[in-house]
Design brief:
This protein is an alpha+beta fold and about 675 residues long. Among the domains are: about 1-95; about 100-160 and about 505-663, Multidrug efflux transporter AcrB transmembrane domain (Multidrug efflux transporter AcrB transmembrane fold, Up-down Bundle); about 165-285, Multidrug efflux transporter AcrB pore domain (Alpha-Beta Plaits). The protein has 22 helices and 15 strands. The strands form 5 sheets. Strands 5, 6, 13, 14 and 15 form a 5-stranded antiparallel β-sheet that branches. A 4-stranded antiparallel β-sheet has the order 2-3-1-4. Strands 7-12 form a two-stranded antiparallel sheet. The protein is elongated.
Length: about 675
């Protein structure tokens, strides 16, 4: 849709010159020369809008990188085609349409001309007469769109949840859990899922002819694959007796009456309560790039960190729509901690002495090695097997003191049974714990949850634990980095486009008037998401940045022709603007329609694999449609307003000069 814009403007200009000068072979060249500057700048500004997207960082930006590459390459070739190949095709003035086609063409052209003369031109004159009201209405549309977004009618979701054809349940029990216990709980979860599927089949059955909801189920205990899918995902699996995974394959989305997300939610609610479970995660997204919410808590004291993590988890769990709240504290196996008593310290024992003597007693001390052929035998000295089998043997152990005497172990130390950690994370020498959660997007969004945390939960947490600090992690950190990168690239694109427009128009005011179309492109994108029921996502913003280069092309064509009329001697600004709109309305209409209709196949796409791209198409299609309507009325009004201020400035300057001369 975008690639034909330059050809449309060039072809329409050639056609107009051929109509004005029938039989003139130079009409083609005049038509090309008349629009060569605005067409070139229009293509270059579109390239300038897409080019910074190549420098975007983050996983999603890397996924979308082929889009600007392809667009830039195609636009570069299209410029050559519009200036060198298309004019040769249009040099032949003979018409190819005959009969019915000629009648349809003539009636369409006559109807368009009549519409411009009877509807557009009077509306333009009215807008110029009430130019400040026109500007106020345009600004009002921006204010309304901001209200729609802030009011939650259109939400922002960094990466939308895309319905998948399978549901994956991952179970993680504490380290050291026997295989049989893990199998028992996993089997209970499986039965709950089968019961939910049977209920849905019975609920939506139509004369028994509807296909079963579930196609297949895989049930694995002792291994756990990665729950991430999409860019950056790993297929590596972890093997352990405390892990289990269930994968339920569903019929394709267009054949089932319920989404996999809703089915997963029901399954989660029906799943049995499992005592001591480390994590129980249900995944029903086609692409999962990490947990929706991720916060790293940092503190030097382990107990303080554990208490803060627990309080944060309670705060997250209290937010509606938040589920699967977990932390990165992974308890390991049971262990015994030995702490020296005053008696042990007085006897001259150290923690190293305790550890060394207990290791030698129960594991053994190597005292000799014997070479036997190619093998080497270790000679170990330790307690007899019968005296190192039970915990009572440990409690009854004896320790040798530095002076050669012996002391009972329970006299020298206090023995505590604890659970250690299977993983310890540190940053700059300080312990960290990561608290994660997932969000049900049909209830709330990750951004809303993060806003609630930063407003209520986190300030209270920092008040209770003054030395605690936090940072974003996972998808939250990726979102922050990607948004910062996209914002910086958008500003670069605006600067490049301003320089290009200023070099063409030799003005600093007119480029700003042309760039004023960009916010209205964003308004159109927002309204498109509202009408079609889509949330604004990172892909939508990607499309909006690209839209900024496309949407100003109509303004460039309009303002360039206005300047052309002024150079030809049209001194009255309103009349020049009306004539420019009447002359450029047809190419503006055609470029807008081709871009919008060119994106129609993507807007109508039903494939699950392609649905995450639809918001980008919505941004561009609806953005350029709305902005083009606004441009026709707003750009002329802004030009007249700029002239008003220019004349006002000259008047003030003249009065000041006259007053100075009088003094």
């Amino acid at each position: 849709g975008i690639v034909v814009d330059d050809a449309i403007v060039t072809g329409e200009s050639i056609f107009h010159e051929q109509q004005m000068h029938p039989g003139d072979p130079t009409a083609v060249l005049r038509g090309v020369h008349l629009v060569k500057a605005p067409v070139t700048i229009g293509v270059l500004t579109t390239i300038a809008a897409f080019a910074p997207l190549l420098m975007s960082t983050g996983t999603l930006a890397q996924v979308m990188r082929p889009v600007p590459l392809v667009v830039i390459a195609i636009l570069s070739i299209s410029l050559i085609e519009a200036f060198y190949i298309l004019p040769a095709h249009l040099a032949n003035t003979s018409t190819w349409s005959r009969g019915l086609l000629a009648k349809v063409r003539d009636r369409t052209q006559a109807g368009l001309d009549s519409f411009v003369q009877r509807r557009i031109i009077p509306a333009i004159k009215l807008g110029l007469a009430y130019r400040y009201a026109t500007l106020a209405l345009a600004c009002g549309s921006i204010i309304i769109s901001v209200g729609i977004f802030q009011g939650g009618f259109v939400r922002f979701v960094f990466f939308p949840q895309i319905d998948s054809d399978h549901i994956t349940v991952s179970l993680k029990m504490p380290t050291g859990t026997p295989f049989e216990i893990t199998y028992n709980y996993a089997e209970q979860i499986l039965k709950a899922g089968e019961a939910i599927a049977a209920e849905v089949d019975a609920e939506y059955a139509e004369d028994g002819k509807s296909p079963p909801l579930v196609e297949a189920i895989s049930f694995t205990v002792g291994s756990l694959g990665s729950d991430r899918s999409g860019p950056g995902a790993s297929s590596a699996a972890v093997n352990s007796e405390n892990l289990a995974q269930i994968r339920m394959e569903l019929v394709p989305g267009d054949q089932r009456p319920i989404s996999s997300g809703e089915l997963g939610r029901r399954w989660r609610e029906r799943a049995p309560a499992i005592p001591g479970v480390e994590s129980l995660v249900f995944r029903s997204n086609l692409v999962h790039m990490g947990d929706d919410i991720g916060l790293e808590l940092i503190h030097r004291d382990e107990k303080t960190l554990a208490a803060a993590a627990q309080q944060l988890k309670h705060g997250l769990a209290a937010v509606e729509g938040v589920s699967e709240v977990e932390d990165s504290f992974e308890l390991g196996k049971r262990e015994y901690v030995f702490e020296l008593t005053r008696a042990g310290l007085s006897a001259g024992l150290t923690p190293a002495d305790i550890g060394r003597q207990l290791r030698r007693a129960f594991y053994g001390a190597e005292i000799h090695r014997i070479q036997r052929a190619r093998n080497e035998l270790k000679v170990m000295v330790r307690y007899p097997h019968a005296e190192r089998r039970t915990l009572s043997d440990l409690y009854n152990a004896r320790l040798r003191l530095p002076n050669g005497d012996e002391m009972d172990l329970r006299t020298a130390v206090v023995i505590r049974e604890e659970r250690g950690y299977s993983r310890i994370e540190r940053v700059d020498g300080r312990r960290i714990v990561t608290v994660t959660a997932n969000v049900e997007e049909n209830i709330t969004t990750p951004d809303d949850v993060m806003a609630a945390l930063q407003k209520d939960v986190l300030p209270q947490l920092l008040t209770v634990f003054p030395e605690l600090s936090y940072d974003f992690s996972g998808a939250s950190r990726d979102q922050r980095d990607d948004m910062a990168s996209l914002k910086g690239n958008f500003l670069i694109a605006l600067m490049v486009m301003f320089v290009m427009l200023a070099s063409l128009l030799r003005s600093y005011i007119q480029p700003l008037i042309i760039l004023s179309a960009i916010p209205f492109g964003f308004v159109g994108s927002l309204l498109g998401h509202l009408l079609l029921g889509f949330d604004i996502s990172f892909i939508s913003l990607f499309g909006m940045v690209a839209l900024s280069g496309v949407v100003i092309n109509d303004s460039v064509v309009l303002v360039d022709y206005y300047n052309h009329l002024r150079k030809k001697g049209q001194n009255k600004i309103p009349e020049a603007l009306v004539e420019a709109v009447a002359r450029r309305f047809r190419p503006i209409l055609l470029t807008t329609m081709t871009t919008s209709f060119g994106l129609l196949p993507m807007l109508m796409e039903t494939s699950l694999q392609a649905r995450f791209l639809i918001p980008m198409a919505v941004s561009i299609a609806f953005g350029i449609l709305y902005a083009s309507i606004v441009i026709i009325f707003l750009v002329p009004a802004l030009i007249v307003i700029a002239d008003d201020f220019s004349r006002l400035g000259r008047g003030v300057s003249n009065r000041v000069r006259e007053r100075a001369d009088a003094l």
